[in-house]
Amino acid sequence: MATTVLDPTVPTAAARRAPWRSPVDQPAYARPALLVITVLAAVLYAWGIDHSQYHTFYANAARSMTESWKAFFYGSFDPANSITLDKLPGFLWPQAISARIFGFHPWALTLPQVIEGVASLLVLYRVVRRWAGVNAALIAGAAFLLTPVAVGLFRTAVEDPLFTLCVLLAAEATQRAAESGRLRPLVMAGVWVGIGFQSKMLEAWAVLPALALVYLISAPITLRKRLAHIGLSAVVMAAVSASWMLAVTLTPAKDRPYVDGTTNNSAFSMVVGYNFLNRFSSLGISAAATGSISATQGGGGHGGGQHSASDAPGAGQNAGGGSGATAPGLAGPGASGTGQHTDTGKHAGAGHYGSGAHHRQGGTDGAQSGYGGAYGSAQQAAGQQSAAGHGSQQARAGGGWGGGDQNGWSKMFGSSLASQTGWLYPLAAIAIVCGLLWRRGKPRTDRIRIGFVLWGTWLTTYFLVFSAGSVGGHTYYMGVIAVPLAALAGGGITLLWRAYRAGGRRAWVLPGAVAATAAWGAYIASQFPTFLPWLAPAVGVLGVAAVVVLALAHPGRARSGGRLALAGLAASLAAVLIAPSAWAMQVFNPSYGSSGMGAVGPSGTNRGGGHGQPKLTAGRTGQLPGGGAAGGAHGKGGTRGGGMGGFGDGQLTSDQQKLLAYTTAHQGSAQYVFATTSWNNASPYILAKGVDVLPLGGFTGQVPFPTTTQFQQLVNSGKLRYVLLGGGRGIGAMFGNGDAAATSTTRITNWVKSACTSVPASAYGGTQSSASATTGFPGPGAEGAGAAQTLYQCTPRR
User: Fold this and answer.
1) Which spans does this entry mark as compositional bias, Gly residues (predicted)?
2) 792: part of which helix (H) or strand (E)?
C-alpha cells in the first residue's frame, strides 16, 4: 500500500490564509483595512447608480456603438456612422460593451467607471505599498477615497476614469521596471500610456516625464541600457497611441464617418488641434492651421480680456477672459438675430465661456453660466429665472465654462477646484521637499527618494498643464491630480512620522505640516459659509489639538509617551482628512450629491460653478436634450440640473414620439429618418430609439459636414426625405471661428427653407414648441433659442 507524504512547504486548502487575513509580512490590520477602504469606494462610486442619467453627448455615441461594430470602432455619434465624436472613442468602449451585455441603460454606462475607480484605488495602494510600506499605502488609499473629485469622477460617464486607471497602471509597471532594470515591464508601461491615450489623448503623455525620470535615475543598469529601454518603450507607446488615428487615416473617407472637430476630416487634426492646442488659446496658441475647428477658451492667460463682435442686435458681445477672438454671441430666450442678448446684447462673464451673464425678462434675473448653466441646465421660458440660479449671484461667484476662479494661472487654488481636489496641497508640497532633501546622499537606486520623484514630477507636470490650459468647469479633469496628492499624503505622513519619532529638529516638521494643511482646509471650507458651517471650525480645532498633542509627546520631552504620540498622529489624520471626507460624503445627501462635471458637494449643485450661497430651494424643472428633466433643486449657488451636454433619461416627449412615428412611417427607402441642425436635436431620438438621424455641423455646429452639395446629393439620391430645423446648433456660438452665417449648417438651413416643403405639426399631431425648452442648448441665429422646430419634406430633383 502506497503511503502519501505531504510536503510541509506546500499549504493545504485548510491551511491557506483567508482573503481577509493579512500576508505574513504585513501587519494584521493591513488586509482588513484595505478591504474596508475598497468596499467603501465601491459604495461611494456606485451609490444611486440606478438613478444615473445619460451624458447626452457621449451617451449617443455609446448607443450607436451598440448598434454596429463599425460604430463601435470609430466612435460614431449616430447609428448611421455619419460623424464621430470629437474625442477618441477608447473611453467609451467599456461603456458600449457594458450596454451590449446589460442593455442600454444609464446605469450600464456608469458601471464601467465604478469598476475603473475601484481598480484605480487598488493599483494606487499597490504602488504606494511597494514604495513606502503598508501604512503609507493605507493612508494614500483613504486619502484618495475621501477626495471629493475622485468620488465624483468614478460616478461620471466621461473620459477620465479609464485614463486615470491607465496612467496608474503605467506607474506600477514603471516601478517594477525601475526596481529590476528589466525591459518588459517598461514596455508594458508604454502600452498602458498608449491605452490611456485612447481615452484622454495627449493628456496621457503628460505622465511621461515622471515615468522616464524614475527609470532613468534609479534602474540598476548602465546608462546606455536605461536610455535604450526608454527609447524602445517610447516607440511602443507612440505606436499604441497612434493606432486608432492611423487606422482612420488609412481608411478611405467614404468608408468611415467624418471626424468631428475638424475642417479636413483628419483624426490628427482632431487630436492635436481641436483637443490639445485649443486648450491653450489663452497663451496665444492657435489651432486653425491644423485643420481643426479653432476654439477660444479660457485658460491660463490673462483673465478679463474683451471678446467683442458688435453690440448691435444680431451680434452680441462677450466680455471675459481669453485671447480676444471674435465670436457670435449667445441667443437668449426671445432674442432674435445672431446672439443678441435680451436687455443689453452682451454676454458678461469671467472667460470666453464665461459665467454669470444675466438678462432681464419682465424684471426677473436669469443666468447663463457657460456649460454649467446655460447649456447644462435647461433654459427657462422668457420671464422665468434660469435653472442656473440668480444671475447676479452667478456673476459674482463665477466659475462657468472657463469662467470665475476656474480661469487663469491661479485656478488650481480657486475654491471651486481646490475644494474638490486640493485639500492636501500643503502636506504634499512639504512631503516632496523633505523627501528629496532628507534622502540626499543615498544611492541612485534609493526606493524612497525615487517615489518622491515620481509623485512630485507627476503632480508638478499636471498642475502646470491645467494652470496654463483650459479646464472650463470640467472638475473631473482633477482626478489625475488627486492621485499624486493621495500618494504623497501617505508617503509624506509616514516619512514625517518617522522623523518625528527619531527626534531632533526634523521632528517639528510633522506638526508644522499638520498645522499648514489644517489651516488651508479651514480656509477652503470657509469659502462655503452656508454649506456645513461647522466644518471650518472643526478643522481648525482638530488641527490645533493635533499640534498640541504632538508637541506634548515630542520625543525630546521627558517621559514622552508612545500612546500620546499615536493620539497626536490620529488627530493629525483627522485634521487633514475630515474636510474632504465631509464633502465626499455628500453623495449620500439628495440635496447635493454629485454633478455631471465630477464635482461633489455644493460645487456639485452649482453647475455654473458659483459657490456663493449653496443653500438649495425648490427648483424648476427644465427639459434636457435627452428628453429628461433637470436635476430639480436650485438656489443662489446654482442648480443640480445638467452638465456638459446635459444629463437626461433618454425619454422622448409626446411631440417627439409623434414626429418620429410620422417620419418613420414615411421614410420609405431613405437611409435617414430625418436630418436635423444639431447633435442636441438628434440626441433624444438616438438615445431613446437608436434611429438613424443625421446631425449637421458636429458638436460645435461649425464642422463643414455635410457640405451643401453633399446634403443635396443625399436628398436627390433618396437617402434623405425629412429635415427638422430649429433649436440649437451645438455650441458654435461659443467658438471663435468667425461668422456663424457662413457655416455649412446655415447654408443647408437656407437651402431647405427655399427648396423643401414645410410639414405642419398638425400632420403628425404635434405642436410647434420652443426648441430651447426642448433641447436646453440655444444656438446662434434665427434658429437659436426660442425658435420653433419645423419639419420639412424634401423631394429629389431629377
Assistant:
1) 297-306, 363-375, 599-612, 624-649
2) strand 790-793
Give 682-710 as a DSSP string. HHHHHHHH---EEESSTTTS-S--S-HHH
Give the pLDDT confidence of 632-663 residue by residue, as tens digits. 333 333 333 333 335 566 679 889 999 999 99
Kindly compute the dihedral angle of the four CA atoms of residues 739, 744, 746, 751, in this order, to the nearest 10 degrees.
140
Q: Give the integer Cα–Cα distance in Å for 462 and 234.
A: 20
Distance CA 79, CA 499 (A): 61
φ and ψ of 722, to 5 deg:
-120, 145
Helix/strand/coil for 740: helix
| In contact, 613 and 635? CB cutoff 8 Å | yes
The residue extents of the domains of the chain are: 654-793
One-letter amino acid identity for 240?
Answer: V
Helix (H) or strand (E) holding 293, with range, is: none
CA 632 → CA 376, 637, 775, distances in Å? 13, 14, 16
On the CB side of 9, CA atoms within 13 Å amount to 0
Which pairs count as long-range contacts for 98-104, CB under 8 Å and 24+ apart, including other chains? 99/62, 99/63, 99/65, 99/66, 100/66, 104/62, 104/63, 104/66, 104/690
CA distance 767 to 758: 14
pLDDT class for 503, splitting at 50, 70, 90?
confident
pLDDT per residue over 461-490, tens digit each? 999 999 998 887 789 999 999 999 999 999
Chain segment 73-87, per-residue pLDDT in tens: 999 999 999 999 999
Cα 95–Cα 275–Cα 779 angle in degrees, nearest 5: 85
Q: Give this prediction's pTM.
A: 0.81
DSSP 115-164: HHHHHHHHHHHHHHHHHH-HHHHHHHHHHHHT-HHHHHHTTS-SSHHHHH
Q: Cα separations (Å) of 113 from 41, 42, 44, 94, 123?
A: 12, 11, 12, 9, 15
The answer to whether the CB of 296 falls within 8 A of the CB of 736 is: yes
Distance CA 515, CA 512 (A): 5
